[in-house]
Amino acid sequence: MRKGRKNLLKNWRVMLLTLVLLGSIFTLAVRPLTYGIDISGGVALVVETEKPVNTNVMNTVVLSLQNRLNTFGVKDITVEAQGNQIILVKVANVTTAEQAQGIKQVIEQQGVFYMEFLGDVFATGKDVEQVFPYKVQDTKWEVPFRISKSAAEKFAQLAKGKAGYPVDFFLDVPENSLMVMPKNIYDEMNSTDFNSQVPTAPRLMERITKAFHITPVIYKNQSADEIIKMAKELKKDRIVLINVESNVAKEVEEKASAEGLTVRTVTQAKGESDKALVTRVLGLYGPYAVGAGLAEGIPRQDVQIQGSSPDRLSAMQEAHTIATVLQTGSLPVKLKVVGMEFISPRLGEDFKNQAVYAGIGALIAVLLIVYLHYRRLKIAIPVASTSLFEVIIILGVASLIKWNLDLPSIAGIIAAIGTGVDQQIVITDELLGGKSTGRISRRLGMLRRMGRAFFVILASATTTVVAMSFLLVYFVGSLKGFAVTTILGVLIGIGITRPAYAEIAKYLLAGET
Predict the structure, then answer these.
(1) CA angle, 401 as apex, 398 and 403 as ends, to 5°?
(2) pTM higher than 0.70 for the full model?
(3) What is the DSSP annotation of 320-336?
(4) 333 with 57: CB under 8 angstroms?
(5) I need a surface site. Which of 67, 256, 283, 364 has the fewest CB within 10 A?
(6) Range in 158-162, 317-321, 415-419 with the lowest mean pLDDT
(7) Does residue 412 form part of some domain?
(8) Contact 195, 309 (CB under 8 A)
(9) What is the per-residue pLDDT for 511?
(10) Over the stretch 465-483, which tens digit does the pLDDT of each residue have?
(11) Domain residues for 26?
């Protein structure tokens, strides 16, 4: 008996289980588990594309959003396409409205960047070679960056001899649009307020019309049909309604989609000046005055965007958003957040506790059922212990690869316990299923029975892995977490825990086979 125990401890399958188990415990001790949004809390945002897109464009949008949010400093995010127009974004550990608003702003910023001078676009986002750390002082901010040599040379030639003339930077300017606005906003856009140091320079309205094919018109109580007809005659892609009556704006939105036009409705905020409204609608930064060096035709690659915000926190958020958008590039289609929901960390803690209780309950149920079936603790305890070891190893691997555990992932672990128990019962039944006389015949009989058991186990595991693989590849959302942990549990079972259990069971049942 003592010799058999010694041989068991030296068995490589049992040693492998022991080493992996100890490694998992060590990993969990030095690298705590991370949890998904439904446990750690956070915010879920439903995002809609401006128009339906194909699979390639949707994949580009998803990848771009992931890059943006990672740059924004968000660590636990999931970005999932839901059809051809809806994207679900989940961000864990977001607990304040200010944090959520910053993420919303990053998502909705399409990031189409232009640098324009007197109606000529001399640089785009593709010319941005490097973005430097932004600076914030009180409520003012600046984002320095470097443009390409060719763009700098083009600007130097355009600006030669034009010191003090206005230079405009635009982020998501509404290109090829019909802009309908009240007379006071129209007059502001056509005033010298945007002419920097040269009142005789072309007005902002003239510059944006030339560079971006924007047609501003005064709102004179035109009907929705008249506005849409005007946009179609001018061959516009979109309509921008500024301070237009809400009932008219709503009717334009309803009818324009049938004509293939997108509509943006803008309302002047309380206390917002006409100039600030124009700046916001156009995505305008500046205008900046041409310096003396550029006026002499000397190229300058290092430039910056400057601005101000109501408070320091807003200034930091805006600067970070601009820097992120410049760094990650533009999205192929504009996005809009149409829904936002917070998940409380306290609720997530309750979910985690319930999942732990469910796991413990499952292990206890396994122990009781196996004991009632075999009436032997020397079978029930190893079966339940092996299931516990399997859970610890799965959690250790999840910790090692930094997999964020969510509720479906935990459900997958519990499902793996059930699968493992089934397979251990198959092994036990085969060991108890036959008796042979003679040492050689007993050994051959045991090998045959183990062969049958592992054939059944491998067939079952293969079926499970294939089924979960389809779920992993063709489904989105939280089902992927269930698939990952189920596959992980099956692979750990057939590779580590099941062979070790077979050796332990052979030792414990040696006198009964």
Answers:
(1) 55
(2) no
(3) HHHHHHHHH---SS-EE
(4) yes
(5) 364
(6) 415-419
(7) yes
(8) no
(9) 52
(10) 888 887 776 655 556 778 8
(11) 2-36+345-512
Q: How many CB atoms lie within 10 A of CB 290?
A: 26
What average pLDDT does this structure show over 76-85?
A: 82
The pair of three-digit structure tokens given for residue 324, joined into one six-digit string: 């992120």
Highest mean pLDDT of the ranges 228-242, 306-320, 330-344, 356-370: 228-242
**pLDDT confidence tier of residue 161, bands split at 50, 70 and 90:** very high
Structure tokens at 61: 């949008």
Q: Does the residue 407 lie in any domain?
A: yes
Residue 302, domain member (yes or no): no
176: tokens are: 């090829």
pLDDT over 90 (residue 170): yes
User: Which three-class secondary structure state does DSSP give residue 123?
Assistant: strand
Q: In this structure, what token pair is assigned to residue 148?
A: 């390409």
- State how far the Cα of 282 lies from the Cα of 114, in Å rounded to an integer: 11
**What residue ranges in 184-257 does DSSP mark as E strands?**
215-218, 238-242
Residue with tokens 């079966």: 383
Query: Looking at residue 510, what is its pLDDT?
Result: 65
Last residue of a domain, one of 229, 248, 269: 269
Residues 465, 377: Cα–Cα separation, whole Å: 32
Distance CA 430, CA 453 (A): 6
Question: What pLDDT, on a 0 to 100 scale, did the predictor assign at position 144?
Answer: 92
Task: Kindly provide the residue ranges of all beta strands, DSSP E only, lying in 271-319, ordered along the sequence.
Answer: 284-289, 302-308
Residue 219 maps to which CATH number? 3.40.50
Decide which of 269, 294, 320 is a domain's last residue: 269
Q: Domain check: are 258 and 350 in the same one?
A: no
